[in-house]
Give the backbone structure.
Amino acid sequence: MKDLQFTTKVFLRSRALRPKTVLNFSLQSRTAALCWPMMFGGHAAAPAQTKGNMSSCTDSPGGPGVSRRGFLKGVGVSTAATGLLAAVKPLAEAAQNESGLLGPGEFSLTLQVNGQSRPLKVEPRVTLLDALRNRLDVTGPKKVCDRGTCGACTVLLDGKPVYSCSMLAVEAQGRAVTTVEGLGTPEKMNAVQAAFVKHDAQQCGFCTPGFVTAATAFVRNHPNASVDQICAGLGGNLCRCGTYAGMLLAVADAAKKGAA
Ligand code: FES
Ligand code: FES
């Protein structure tokens, strides 16, 4: 019964949508004669030859409107597309599991941040900076240029300063990430942090976490550094307020003490 209703609908729809000028009498008669058994006898009862004729008799190549064949093709294509879409996801997931590929959706990873294991879910395209700030609420590293120019996002990766805006969170898996929060606390600051306070080495303070982090790595590797060495060592960080004199004094002071 459902088949009959569907066929009737398709037939009536194709008739209704076709401009009258396109339908000539002989075609109508032929269509009606050939469609009759299919409409009232059901698909299963229609002889093979009739089915073949059906597809040719209702087609109108090059003509305007929606032909029965076009409509059925559309139904077939959309059904196939729906089926394909349903099949694509499990296939993609299977491929991901087998090949080790990630994404495009979120996946689980664990970052070692300031000595703590921090599980999170991110898409593979997420930068370390965004993962820290937006997913783990570690907001010491700042997002300023977001293109590896200013150094406001500097963190230590296994002790080395990197721009966290310019690497992916997934690349930091299994490595020690240290942000300015992990260098010291207000009660127990490291040598560079204490020197920044002592020399009042900030104005708006937006660049300060990046400078303190980069300077900490620099001082660890360059005890008793000269002014020229400090300038070169901190060349990857910019201060838009121009607080360089105070920062230079602070880093020189920390470097003199030889520890951070
Ligand atoms: S925000 Fe990363 S270098 Fe500027
Ligand atoms: S203190 Fe304002 S940007 Fe450096």
